[in-house]
C-alpha cells in the first residue's frame, strides 16, 4: 500500500509544482467568475487537466475556493467538469470607506461578495485619526462577530491619494488638511486593532472602477472609463487591461476638473464651471430648485428625485436636461483624449443616465470624434457599495498575485 501511495503523491506534487505559477491566475479567474469549471480553467491557463486539478485542489486546501464533487453534466460532452466557486466561508478583507456624509466598514470575501457591514456613521470629524479609528473599530467588531480570517485592509477616500506615500492630496469635501497621511494613519489603527495583512488606501472612484471591472458593468472591457459622483464632487478612473491607471504618482484622471461651463459656478480648484460643481448632487438640487433635506444625504435626495419625479416634475426634468448636457460635454472630451472601449457611470450620473440614456448617448456622440465613428458603449454601474468592494479588491490583490506566499 505504501509503495503505491508514494508515487501517486509524488506525481500530484510534481503537477502542483509545475502549476504553482498558475495559482494566482487561477484564483483570479475564479474570483472574477471567468472560470466556473475546471475545464474552463484548464483552457484559460493553457495547462493540462491534471495540473488544473492539482491547482484547484491547492486553492481549496488554502480555503479560497470550493471544488464541486458532483460535476454538472448538463450540456457537456465527454467527461463532465467539476464546478469551481469561491469559498463562502473563506477569508475576508476589511474594507472601509469615508465620504462627506459619513463612513462605513465591511468584510468582503472573494468574488466581491460583501459578507457583513457595519451601520454607517453620519458624522465625519476634522481629525482623520479619530475617524479612521472609528471605522477600523467597526470593522474589527465585524471580524470578532464572524470569526473570519482577514487577509488585509483597504480604505476608500474622496481624494486623490499619492503613491507610494498614501497622502490624501485634496480631501476637499472633508474637513481634513491637504496631504493628510491617510494610509499611515489607517495602517496604525488596523495594527492597533490586532488585524494583520497589508494595508492600502486609494481614491474612492478608482476603487469603484476596479470593482466594476472585475465584478460589474466593466467586465470584459480593456479600456474602461468610469465617471461617477460621490456624495459631493465628481471623480473618474481608467482601468487598462485589468489594472488601474493612476499615473506617475497616483493622481491621474482628476476628471472632475474638466471645464464644461466656463461661466459656471466657482470650483474648489480655482477654476469655474468644472464637472465637479456642475454635475454633482448639490448642483442638481440647485438646478431643480430643491433645498438639501435634513434626513438624507444630498446624493440620495438627488437620486430619489430623479427616480420618482422625472419626467413629471418640470423642475426636475429641466435639471436632468441641464446636467445631461454638461455631463455629455465632459464625457465627449474624455472620449476624444482616451478612446475608451466602454464608459460606466455611477452615483448621480448613473441616475441621470438611467433617466434619459439615449439623450446622454446622443450628446456624447455629437461632441466626440470617436462617438461619431460608431459610438462608445455607455452603461450604468451595477454594484452596490462599489467603492467598498474596490477597497477590498486592493487588499485581496497580494493573495491574487501569490496565494501561497500571502497565506502561508
Automatic annotation (TrEMBL):
Residues 1-20 are annotated as: Disordered. InterPro entries: ATPase_NBD (IPR043129), ROK (IPR000600), WH-like_DNA-bd_sf (IPR036388). Belongs to the ROK (NagC/XylR) family. This is ROK family protein. It comes from Streptomyces macrolidinus.
Amino acid at each position: 500500500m505504501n509503495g503505491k501511495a508514494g508515487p501517486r503523491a509524488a506525481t500530484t506534487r510534481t503537477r502542483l509544482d509545475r502549476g504553482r505559477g498558475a495559482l494566482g491566475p487561477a484564483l483570479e479567474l475564479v474570483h472574477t467568475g471567468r472560470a466556473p469549471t475546471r475545464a474552463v480553467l484548464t483552457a484559460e491557463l493553457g495547462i493540462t487537466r491534471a495540473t488544473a486539478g492539482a491547482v484547484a485542489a491547492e486553492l481549496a486546501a488554502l480555503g479560497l475556493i470550493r471544488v464541486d464533487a458532483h460535476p454538472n453534466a448538463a450540456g457537456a460532452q465527454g467527461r463532465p467538469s467539476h464546478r469551481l466557486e469561491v469559498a463562502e466561508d473563506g477569508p475576508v478583507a476589511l474594507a472601509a470607506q469615508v465620504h462627506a456624509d459619513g463612513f462605513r466598514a465591511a468584510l468582503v470575501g472573494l468574488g466581491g461578495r460583501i459578507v457583513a457591514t457595519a451601520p454607517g456613521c453620519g458624522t465625519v470629524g476634522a481629525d482623520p485619526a479619530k475617524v479612521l479609528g472609528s471605522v477600523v473599530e467597526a470593522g474589527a467588531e465585524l471580524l470578532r462577530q464572524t470569526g473570519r480570517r482577514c487577509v488585509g485592509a483597504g480604505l476608500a477616500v474622496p481624494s486623490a491619494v499619492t503613491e507610494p506615500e498614501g497622502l490624501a492630496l485634496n480631501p476637499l469635501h472633508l474637513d481634513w488638511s491637504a496631504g493628510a497621511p491617510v494610509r499611515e494613519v489607517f495602517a496604525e489603527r488596523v495594527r492597533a486593532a490586532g488585524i494583520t495583512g497589508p494595508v492600502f488606501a486609494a481614491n474612492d472612484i478608482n476603487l469603484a472602477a476596479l470593482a466594476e471591472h472585475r465584478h460589474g458593468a466593466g467586465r470584459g472591457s480593456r479600456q474602461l472609463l468610469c465617471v461617477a459622483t460621490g456624495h459631493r464632487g465628481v471623480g473618474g478612473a481608467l482601468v487598462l487591461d485589468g489594472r488601474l491607471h493612476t499615473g506617475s504618482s497616483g493622481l491621474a484622471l482628476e476628471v472632475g476638473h474638466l471645464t464644461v461651463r466656463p461661466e459656471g459656478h466657482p470650483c474648489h480648484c480655482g477654476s469655474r464651471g468644472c464637472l465637479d460643481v456642475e454635475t454633482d448632487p448639490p448642483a442638481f438640487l440647485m438646478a431643480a430648485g430643491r433645498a438639501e433635506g435634513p434626513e438624507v444625504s444630498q446624493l440620495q435626495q438627488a437620486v430619489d428625485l430623479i427616480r420618482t419625479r422625472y419626467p413629471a416634475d418640470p423642475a426636475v426634468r429641466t435639471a436632468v436636461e441641464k446636467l445631461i448636457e454638461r455631463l455629455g460635454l465632459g464625457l465627449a472630451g474624455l472620449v476624444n483624449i482616451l478612446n475608451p472601449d466602454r464608459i460606466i457611470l455611477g452615483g448621480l450620473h448613473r441616475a441621470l443616465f438611467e433617466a434619459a440614456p439615449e439623450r446622454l448617448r446622443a450628446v456624447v456622440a455629437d461632441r466626440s470624434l470617436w462617438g461619431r465613428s460608431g459610438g462608445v458603449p455607455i452603461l450604468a454601474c451595477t454594484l452596490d457599495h462599489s467603492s467598498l468592494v474596490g477597497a477590498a479588491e486592493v487588499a485581496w490583490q497580494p493573495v491574487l498575485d501569490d496565494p501561497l506566499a500571502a497565506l502561508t
